[in-house]
Design brief:
Layout (H helix, E strand, L loop, with lengths): L1 E3 L18 E10 L2 E11 L4 E6 L5 H8 L7 E6 L3 E4 L11 H5 L6 H13 L15 H13 L5 E5 L7 H18 L2 E5 L3 H7 L2 E6 L2 E7 L11 H14 L11
Parallel strand pairs: 4-8, 4-9, 6-7, 7-8
Antiparallel strand pairs: 1-5, 2-3, 2-5, 9-10
Helix pairs in contact: 3-4, 4-5
Length: 256
């Protein structure tokens, strides 16, 4: 484990609550123009745990994810995260002037990484596409390349910032299945930021709601597998989450 950002604490001086955690945050605060988007956020993730983070638009979900990813030097508080972590964004962010394999290897050098990149492409179903250009890929294929780029780094923490938000419904279902398979195989701790309540319930072990810069609701997903939207337990959890988000359950859709 390594401590990041302000409130630096050596590994030996970790808070007792952080011992054995994959992620531990305490009193995390981020201010923009005198407005606290994150205001004393505390969180613990266990190794291999999949957690989904919901919240209204502008609630600070992506801000918190960026803090965990080391992408925001101005966050305050204690943030303990693994050294090996990877981020997958809503857009694949592939470099159009590089072929697929160099995109997966971005920032990595050495033959061992090249072999691992080919393995990662095979895992996401893109074996044989190493020499393709990004422009030739569908949206789902491009996002699979982004997942491969994350996997090749063998992350202990995988951060997902609405990675399926731009995909059509059928492609999204396929990507859900792929992500579940990859997480079972590699067992990283996962934090998924999403606006989709159903997606959160389908994928996560635990669902959090971010309100006014803090976690206002933390619920385990106790829905039997395979998780079906028609299941009564699924419906009860969805209702509780929508109520916390202030969304009319009869309103069209579940995006908030």
């Amino acid at each position: 484990m390594a401590t990041r950002f302000r409130g630096h604490v050596s590994v030996e001086d970790q808070p007792a609550g952080a011992l054995g955690a994959a992620v531990y945050t305490e009193g995390v605060r981020r201010v923009f123009d005198q407005r606290a988007v994150l205001d004393g956020l505390d969180l613990r993730l266990e190794p291999g745990e999949f957690v989904a983070l919901l919240g209204r638009s502008g609630s600070g979900k992506s801000t918190f994810l960026r803090a965990l990813g080391g992408l925001d030097p101005d966050v305050e508080g204690t943030v303990l995260v693994p050294e090996r972590r990877a981020v997958v964004f809503q857009e694949p962010r592939l470099l159009p002037w590089k072929r697929i394999l160099p995109n997966v290897l971005l920032g990595l050098k050495g033959s061992e990484h090249r072999d691992r990149a080919r393995d990662a492409l095979r895992e996401v179903g893109l074996e044989g596409h190493e020499k393709d250009w990004p422009i030739t890929l569908s949206g789902g294929e491009a996002q699979r390349v982004a997942l491969a780029r994350a996997l090749v780094r063998e992350p202990q923490l995988l951060l997902l910032d609405e990675p399926f938000g731009a995909l059509d419904a059928l492609t999204r279902i396929r990507m859900h299945t792929l992500l579940q398979e990859l997480c079972r195989r590699h067992r990283p701790a996962v934090l998924l930021v999403t606006h989709d309540v159903g997606e959160a319930i389908l994928l996560a072990d635990r669902v959090l709601v971010l309100t006014d810069g803090r976690i206002s609701l933390d619920l385990p997903v106790e829905v039997p597998s395979p998780r079906l939207r028609s299941d009564a337990a699924f419906g009860r959890l969805r209702s509780a989450l929508l109520a916390e988000l202030g969304v009319d359950e009869l309103a069209e859709g579940s995006h908030v």
